[in-house]
Amino acid sequence: MSILSVWHLVVLSVLYNGLASNGVTNNVSNTSIPSVIHVGAILSFESVISKVARVAIEAAVDDVNSDPTVLGGAQLNVTMQDTNYSGFLGILEALKFMETDTVAIIGPQGAEIAHVISHIASELHTPMLSFSVSDPTLSPLQFPYFVRTTQNDLFQMAAIADMVEYYGWREVIAIYVDDEHGRNGITALGDELAQKRCKISFKAPLKDFPSRDDITDLLVKVALTESRIIVLHVYTAWGLQVFDAAKYLGMMGTGYVWIATNWLANILDSHPPFASGAMDYIDGTLTLRMYTPDLEQKQKFFSRWSNLTSTKPVKDRLGLNTYGLYAYDTVWLLARALDAFFKKGGKITFTNDSRLNEHQSGDLNLDAMSIFDEGNLLLDNILKVNMTGLTGPFAFTQERNLIRPAFDIINVLGTGSRRIGYWTNYSGLSVLPPETLYTKPPNRSSSNQRLYDPIWPGQTSQKPRGWVFPNNGRHLLIGVPNRVSYREFESRVPGTDTFTGYCIDVFTAALNLLPYAVPYKLVPFGDGRTNPSPTDLVRMITTGVYDAAIGDIAIITNRTRMADFTQPYIESGLVVVAPVRKMNSNAWAFLKPFTREMWFITAVFFLIIGAVVWILEHRMNDDFRGPPRKQFVTILWFSFSTLFFSHRENTVSTLGRMVLIIWLFVVLIINSSYTASLTSILTVQQLASPIKGIESLVASNDPIGYQQGSFARNYLIDELNIHESRLVALNDQEDYARALQDGPSGGGVAAVIDERAYMEVFLSTHCEFSIVGQEFTKAGWGFAFQRDSPLAIDMSTALLKLSENGDLQRIHDKWLTRSACTSQGTKFEVDRLQLKSFWGLFLICGLACLLALFIYFFQMIRQFTRRNAEELQSTGRSLQSGRLQTFLSFVDEKQEESKSQGRSKRRHSEIASSNRGTGQDESINDSKQRYVESSGKSPDNCENA
Q1: Which CATH number is associated with domain 36-150+302-394?
Q2: How many CB atoms sit inside 10 A of residue 775's CB?
Q3: pLDDT band for position 529 (50/70/90)?
Q4: Mean pLDDT throughout 720-743?
Q5: Mean pLDDT across the chain, nearest whole number?
Q6: Which of 22-31, 36-45, 838-847 has the highest mean pLDDT?
Q7: Does Metal-binding count among this protein's keywords (predicted)?
Q8: CA-CA 20 to 30 A from 815: which of 359, 795, 802, 920?
Q9: 3-state helix, strand, coil in the chain (%, to 5)
């Protein structure tokens, strides 16, 4: 056990035994605000963070003490102590502060010291405010008096995880300092990556202040791993030594990605301009910096910084970094909390424990340590402060993290650095400043994530792949099914470890298209006597026996849960194969193109069209007039003669022609379809089978064959509810043929269900069988790799290239060429043309007929009503009786006769009316009438004469 751990136990034991008793008041301040308020600060003076923070704290104390509106004129006194990078000394310094009336402690700087001192602070009710400890495990539940006044590492690690996902990487390597700061931060990173289906593939811890050899040895191990994405989470004091060693080992070149946490940005800000030599070995690195908005007070403090550091030694004159800004705001946070504390009547009183007198020894003065009586009230006021500081809005969430966590994402270049974007807990990655994002609704969608393109190590703008095959001499172990049938797909060469076949050629062709070499070894899977189960092979990948699996492996649901598959390189769903017989044509073959329903509806429409055209043409077309028997024959003749476009009757009405044109178009389509189907029936060899497809097979009780080891068995049982007693396992093509020939009655099977790729090979040499029905599943074959393997994505891209350049088809033709058997013009029972294929045409034709009839009868009613009105006017008597009969007679009349009769009646009525109106002598009218009849002249001419 380390000295620090021993001292930790001793201190806690003393405090526990001493503070458990009742205490008495040691000294009590006046009811007014004390003139001096004592605050402690624990720093490591030689660190970059402390050198900047000391100046910032001193400036903040001066500003607070010079502001009369804060603390009512009381002076804030901050006493700083140096831990000299020692946890043991840090504890001692904290205990010394407890001996004085210290109301709060600023610091410590490191997470290791913070974990120990937080126990002391909690026991003595002394708030501890740290502007640099970002360890996410310092929970307010365990350490209620620890207040983090900087960003929690949870958010920094979430930002790195979002970057890894954004660039499409899946695995990272973590190099970190092996203490609370490093371990806990990397644990948080692992949790964030896991949420995005990424992971830390290798953890590489370093002790604090490692030697050059320690760093080199660790980096050599890192170089032998697969991932090239390295997250560096260390301290500013020696972090650059890691980059220096990596540069020496060639690990800062093309292909590597280095992501440093905010310690690197802290160095860049503290040493402007950075040494050119150092910039060379961090060129292309990405780092994060805590985001602070460009406020006016921040700019003023930056302008003031050079004056604040002018009195410091040259080595201590550093640039202002974000830790300095947070240190400054921490002092103001405490000052405002104390001001609110006093305004609420708070008093600075301490209580010691008499039992501590028993532990007086040396300079520790344990009996002088006191409990801050109203420390909980001060803590409450600290957490309620809401101000705007140099770092922007400064307040705490319910989880006691600072509000609006955000980071700049920095790309280090040879001449400096540039910001390529931002990360916020509000909207993720963006090139817009956080202030702009906060004015919009939060959007974490992948399409909204964006960064500017960085320059990567090796001075390249092309995004690194992020991984290579490990340089440790290990080959990828790839499982291959050791098949006993369908060896065209893959087969092991006897006496060797090599394989040949269609799947093997596809794999090697795709592998040759990759931009890198893949060391691999093919390992047979199976006993060589029966076909192995591809599902069992894929399961071996999940257990780590194999790195990948290739061959005739169908991509189905339960297998995709075990491994990642490439895109399919061949389609292969389940089909039904059954024995077939040839069908010969017979005397009634001409009826086969249409179904019964189709024949019936077609015949009905022929009659309907004849009747509609007769109605539309009857009044004006002599071809559609005559005795009823003749008209009936005309309707039948006209209807069926349109089938051959040989009707001799002309159509003269517009409505009739419209209906006929639409009907002739329908007849044209029906004729063409019938001719094509009949030609196929009479010229193509037809095959028939009692099995029509998967539906009829499921409905029967006949046995069904399947390939041994195929997923078809589980599919038939689980999805189609076929009892397993009906299923017969078959091993090779000879078993298929024998079982199908024997049939159910001879101990065989009614049909075989297998994947199309196998069945096409089988049918190429067995013409007496055929695929019946449709393919009832959709699947494909692919190569399986371990979960999140980047090789699966690259192989998918290579397979696409093979498909585009035609190589995939050439490999297919090489191994799976069809024989003459399957190239014959055979067809399995041509599908008869059904009514559903033509119902749209019949619907259009029927609507046209209804529309034409509606318009026609509307015209008839209008004409009939007009003539009735004229007759009523001329005769003066009602024609209500026999109106329907009169209308039917009117419709049956020829249109010219109807018009002439109407004109004659109107003329007679006019003459009669004129005679009654003039009152002339009847003899004169008689003489005129006789003159008209004898001379043939009109009455007007007669009168003129």
Answers
A1: 3.40.50.2300
A2: 18
A3: confident
A4: 92
A5: 82
A6: 36-45
A7: no
A8: 795
A9: 50, 15, 35
State residue 30's pLDDT score: 40
- Note the pLDDT of residue 691: 82
pLDDT in tens, 77-86: 999 988 877 7
798 exposure class (CB count in 10 Å sphere: 0-12, 13-18, 19+): buried
Residue with tokens 């008499």: 354
Fold exhibited by the domain 687-772: D-Maltodextrin-Binding Protein; domain 2 (3.40.190)
In angstroms, the CA 6 to CA 16 distance is 15
Is it the case that residue 925 has pLDDT exceeding 50? no
Q: For residue 384, which amino acid is it?
A: K
pLDDT digits 0-9 by tens, 154-190? 999 999 999 999 999 999 999 999 999 999 999 999 9
Report pLDDT for 553: 95
Q: If you search the block for the tokens 């956080």, which residue do you land on?
A: 434
Is residue 539 within 8 A of residue 784, CB to CB? The reply is: no
Examine the pLDDT at 367 and tell me if it is beyond 90: no
Residues 6+ apart with CB under 8 A from 457: 252, 253, 254, 255, 256, 257, 258, 283, 284, 285, 464
How far is the C-alpha of 268 from the C-alpha of 419, rounded, in Å? Answer: 13
Helix segments in 284-418, DSSP class H: 296-309, 322-343, 375-384
**CA pseudo-torsion sign 732, 736, 741, 747:** positive
pLDDT on residue 585: 57
Residue ranges of domains in the chain: 36-150+302-394, 153-293+405-448, 476-572+780-816, 589-683, 687-772
Taking alpha carbons only, the member of 207, 223, 265, 222 closest to residue 240 is 265
Query: SS3 of 392, please?
Result: strand
Closest-CA residue to 269 (of 287, 252, 281, 257): 287
In angstroms, rounded to a whole number, what is the distance separating the alpha carbons of residues 460 and 244? 20
Burial annotation 469-487 (CB, 10 A radius, 16+ → b, else e)? eeeeeeebbbbbbbbbbbe
Answer yes or no: are the C-beta atoms of 587 and 579 closer than 8 Å.
no
Distance of alpha carbon 462 from alpha carbon 414, whole angstroms: 17
Give the CATH fold of the 153-293+405-448 domain: Rossmann fold (3.40.50)
Q: Determine the 3-state secondary structure of 766 from DSSP.
A: coil
What lies within 8 Å, CB to CB, of 395 at 6+ separation is: 385, 386, 387, 402, 403
How is residue 555 written in tokens?
């991509």
What average pLDDT does this structure show over 637-657?
A: 73
The reply to whether 687-772 shares the fold of 153-293+405-448 is: no
Phi-psi region at 919: left, alpha or beta (left = phi > 0; alpha = psi -120 to 50): left
| pLDDT above 80: residue 472 | no
Take residue 55 and report the two structure tokens written for it: 């100046």
Summarize pLDDT for 686-696 with one digit per residue, the tens: 555 678 788 88
Reported as half-sphere exposure (CB side, CA atoms, 13 A), residue 373 has a value of: 15
Tokens of residue 476, six digits: 């990828």
Q: Name the residue among 505, 512, 550 with its Cα closest to residue 813.
A: 505
Judged against a pLDDT cut of 70, whether residue 120 lies above it is answered with yes
Q: What's the mean pLDDT in 907-918?
A: 50
> Tokens 């086969």 appear where?
592
Pick the CATH number of 476-572+780-816 from 1.20.1250.20, 3.40.50.720, 3.90.1750.20, 3.40.190.10: 3.40.190.10
Which residue did the predictor score with more confidence, 23 or 88? 88
Could you give the angle at the alpha carbon of 703 between the alpha carbons of 701 and 705, nearest 5°? 145
The candidate with the shortest Cα–Cα distance to 323, out of 269, 274, 275, is 269
**Identity of the residue numbered 297:** Q
Q: Which residues, listed in sequence order, are joined to residue 289 by a DSSP beta bridge? A: 408
Backbone angles phi, psi at 451, to 5 degrees: -140, 155
* Model pLDDT, residue 11: 43
Alpha helices in 167-271 (DSSP H): 180-194, 212-223, 239-248, 262-270
Q: Give whichever of 160-174, 411-425, 521-535 has the largest mean pLDDT.
A: 160-174
